[in-house]
Amino acid sequence: MEFLEVSKSYPIYDSPGDRLKELASFSRLHCHRDFWALRDVSFQIQRGETFCIIGENGSGKSTLLQIVAGILHPTAGTVKVGGRVAALLELGSGFNPEFTGRDNVYLNAAILGLSSGEIDRRYKDIESFAEIGDFIHQPVKTYSSGMVVRLAFSVAIHVDPQILLVDEALAVGDMYFRQRCMRKVHDLRSNGVTILFVSHAIGDVKAIGDRTLWLDSGRVRELGPNDNVVGKYLAAMVQKDSAYLELKKGTFREQTATTKAPEIVDTIPNIDHRYGDGRAEVLGIAILDPFGMPLHLLEPCSEIVVRISVRAKDYLALPIVGFMFRNHLGIDFSGTNTSREGFRLPPMAPGDVYTVDFHFPLPALYAGFFSFSPAIADGTLIHYKHCDWIDNAITLQMGHTEGPVYGYMHLPCRVELNKTLARGPRPVPETPVG
Predict the structure, then answer these.
(1) Fewer CB atoms inside 10 Å of the end CB: C or N, the chain?
(2) Is it the case that residue 425 has pLDDT exceeding 70?
């Protein structure tokens, strides 16, 4: 795939009347000004490469993908695209809201070049991956935004694309489905599929990208290896947003001043998956600051409290309460429990309720979303049985650090200068004669 000095402009009119005047004059009058969404963009993508595109809103990322998909034509420049293209662009684009999910599967797959027989053979896999149940037989207009994304993504990955375009579509889905999608993207990469991936989730970009293009106001700001481009982008964004983030922190303090969490937490914001033998249950989880105030944003290098309330339904001789800390890709970043920390809980009788607080400092992690999965078990660290486990019960975003994060986290370190001086007496400069 090749972009060579590609530009795309849109006419901007001050009023509908100006548009009419220009149409009536058969373009002899120019009553508009040009807005350049892209300007002189050039790059090449090798087959099987995962090419990420980042930038602020309005920088031209979606326009670029629409040109690749053939939805838009460039105003200037040349574009060469070879291979079957499957696109996940605007939410539900290409879906007829009056048709059922099944009808839209056949319609979209046919548009992407599959025959009826090929669609028949793949339909069960598409339906199974989407996991929308009986809604597959209902009109798409009755779907939630997440269900539309599930179906659209499932169709796109099952038509054997040679080029897959993804434009922030996965951000709408729940965390469980996003993790499945990211694993599928990794599978496609290993099978040689070329992927163009637009996202504001820098963690996703780092995880799957080979190279990254940073667009700024329609122009190429940086193009190169992920670490180099992402590092410069994050540094620029931190510098730009520092004043706003300080104001936002003050707002959070004012809003949470009177909402101190109770000692027993009885709310579970989200349940992606839940399992266990049922002899005890997690009642709730909350993420607090050291003063017991609920957090809405994780601050790097700060101390937080993970509060988990559990209730026994049967006798537990050796109860263990803990949690897993995951990133948005579903990777277990860290985890702990009462037994691991050397804190032995007393046995629990049916009806007993324990609330456990875990105090720990957060490192400086990259700006992304992180989830907490609480659990209660019975036994020891070596031999135990899960009573209740809740995947991704609560998710919070990590705020920006003062400087860029290289990799996944910044480890605190002390820098010293060990200066080696030349041995022996220093030469004395000669006094000029004359």
Answers:
(1) C
(2) no
Domain 47-238: which CATH number of 1.10.10.10, 1.20.140.10, 3.10.50.40, 3.40.50.300: 3.40.50.300
151: its two tokens: 């179906």
Whole-number Cα distances in Å, 99 to 105, 302, 428: 10, 50, 91
CA distances from 235 to 81, 89, 111, 331, 431 (A): 33, 28, 42, 25, 50
What is the CATH topology of the domain spanning 273-410?
A: Coagulation Factor XIII; Chain A, domain 1 (2.70.50)
Helix (H, G, I), strand (E, B) or coil at 90: coil
Chain centroid to CA 158: 22
176 or 306, greater pLDDT: 306
To which residue do tokens 């936002």 refer?
248
Residues 200/61, Cβ–Cβ less than 8 Å: no
- Give the separation between CA 193 and CA 182, rounded to whole angstroms: 14
Say how far apart CA 318 and CA 377 lie, in whole Å.
Answer: 8
Q: What is the pLDDT of residue 261?
A: 46
Burial class (CB in 10 A: 0-12, 13-18, 19+), 259: exposed
d(CA 24, CA 423): 86
Asked if residue 111 has pLDDT above 50, the reply is yes
Determine if the pTM surpasses 0.70: no
